[in-house]
Specification:
145 residues, alpha/beta, Nucleotidyltransferase, domain 5, five-stranded mixed sheet, 5 strands, globular
């Protein structure tokens, strides 16, 4: 089984989770978001360190299943990931993921400063990756025409 990196896209922080050949998703923290310089360098370090074969990115569809502004931002982000890292990127429906995480670990984690603030993002990335792995990997990938 390949190594996967779950990614919860964000402008301030990008949450990350990892799964290896055992297929168990674990939150690993957050890196600087796309509005910050150096996020691709940090992402490259994680990809190399964990020998990542596939990226799994949360895709924020509207509740009615339509693609909105935020999903279009994620499309651009995914294009950048594909160009930069030459790895397969899988989209996973992330509706309600962050809300579920906040309910589980509490609202305080979402508002904390510093390293603690990335817990929600990493936990969301972990849920995204778990959803992908439990769906039978590539069959769980969203496809758009």
């Amino acid at each position: 089984m390949p190594n996967y990196l779950g990614v919860d896209y964000g402008t301030k922080r990008i949450g990350l989770a990892w799964a290896d050949e055992l297929g168990i998703a674990l939150p690993i923290g957050a890196i600087a978001g796309v509005e910050c310089k150096g996020y691709l360098v940090e992402l490259r370090q994680e990809i190399q360190q964990r020998q990542i074969d596939h990226l799994v990115v949360g895709y924020p569809l509207h509740m009615d299943g339509k693609v909105g502004k935020r999903a279009k931002e994620v499309d651009l982000f995914i294009g950048c990931l594909e160009k930069t890292f030459s790895l397969p990127v899988h989209r996973v429906d992330e509706r309600l993921t962050s809300l579920a995480v906040v309910e589980v670990i509490g609202k305080k984690a979402k508002t904390k400063k510093g390293k603690e603030s990335g817990k929600v993002d990493a936990a969301a990335a972990c849920l995204i990756l778990k959803d992908f792995l439990s769906s039978g990997t590539e069959e769980g990938t969203l496809t758009f025409s």
